[in-house]
């Protein structure tokens, strides 16, 4: 059994989708959800699935003596970032090299980097007049949105789409593909 930790900061729709997808999986188990925000709706969503949830401050996430024992205690094999807005510290990235998976709401390398999350990405896509956008599922390294790409999925952007309409199209791709790509990536690494 492969144990996952999901790191979240916000609403948690991707987190909940992952929890639902792996609920009865015989190979993959979500055993821990970590948030850097106590008010994150993702924690309530995760609680419905009986998954252990922890809130860690930015300082605790960056403190090897705090976070690493928690990950080891839960026997975490892979970390999934699902709307987690903090840059992971080097010690986690090195410990879990090619075992941290993130999703980004654009076709990297475009529209990535610090500050490029949520509606900010979709506003940038709209402002640039892009005809397509999508999602990028990638490994995490020590820089925002620059790890090796695992998979990308595209959607068309109409000239009259608003950033909110673009966000809805991208969200559909996230819900459809993120859990299955996580599973495929994990199982192919065994």
Brief characterization of the structure:
This protein has seven helices and seven strands. The protein has 190 residues and is of the alpha/beta class. Strands 3-2-1-4-5-6-7 form a seven-stranded mixed sheet, with helices on one face.
Secondary structure elements and pairings:
Layout: E1 2-8, H1 13-22, E2 28-35, H2 41-47, E3 52-55, H3 58-61, H4 64-73, E4 78-81, H5 90-95, E5 100-104, H6 119-127, E6 132-139, E7 149-156, H7 163-188
Parallel strand pairs: 1-2, 1-4, 2-3, 4-5
Antiparallel strand pairs: 5-6, 6-7
Helix pairs in contact: 1-7, 6-7
Features:
seven-stranded mixed sheet; 38% helix
Task: Please mark out the parts with pLDDT under 50 across 5 or more consecutive residues, or reply none.
Answer: none
Question: Based on helices, strands and strand pairing, what is the structural class?
Answer: alpha/beta
The radius of gyration is: 16 Å
The CA-CA distance between the termini, in Å, is: 11 Å
| Count of alpha/pi helices | 7
From N to C, what is the helix and strand string? EHEHEHHEHEHEEH
